[in-house]
Amino acid sequence: MIEEVQLLEQLKSDKDKDEAFRALISLYKERLYWHIRSIVKSHDDTDDVLQNTFIKVYKNIHNFKGESKLFSWMYRIATNESITFINKNARRLQTSSEEVQQQAINNLTSDVYFEGTEIQLKLQKAIATLPEKQQLVFNMKYFQDLKYKEISEILETSEGALKASYHIAVKKIEDYLTNN
């Protein structure tokens, strides 16, 4: 597998950029897809946000300073693009971002790409009751099994704050699942 340093050099060179970008997409497409999907819920919306994420990465790779891993930088872009997408939908529908997410969860049962059981749907509803940051932390830790250090780089927050957010999120989800 190509090393990140070598990939970055190729991404920043005019000669190798397109080929390196195809390699970058094949390396990270699936992981970013599931990260975005955990936020926006719908398969079709996820595809749109994923495409926007890769466009931003392509256009802005020369701005990447290497202060974090390339993976973390791309996750941050994907996270921001997902939140922007939800907020744009909320403005367009003249509603709150929470209501947009709730509607997306309600639509999951008719989404042909959602293969979840009733309990998975209930878990998604519980996650949707959390504040945005707790949702992000919970999804990255629980579903994507990211380390606190990686989440810290992506969300630019201390590991201690993330551990507290995750713990609080788990408690709220447990309460929701017990009482609903």
Automatic annotation (TrEMBL):
The keyword Transcription applies. Residues 121-173 form the RNA polymerase sigma factor 70 region 4 type domain. Residues 24-92 form the RNA polymerase sigma-70 region domain. The keyword Transcription applies. It comes from the Bacteria. Keywords: Sigma factor, Transcription, Transcription regulation. CDD domains: Sigma70_r4. Belongs to the sigma-70 factor family. ECF subfamily. PANTHER family: RNA POLYMERASE ECF-TYPE SIGMA FACTO, RNA POLYMERASE SIGMA FACTOR. This is RNA polymerase sigma factor. The lineage of its organism: Bacteria, Pseudomonadati, Bacteroidota, Flavobacteriia, Flavobacteriales.
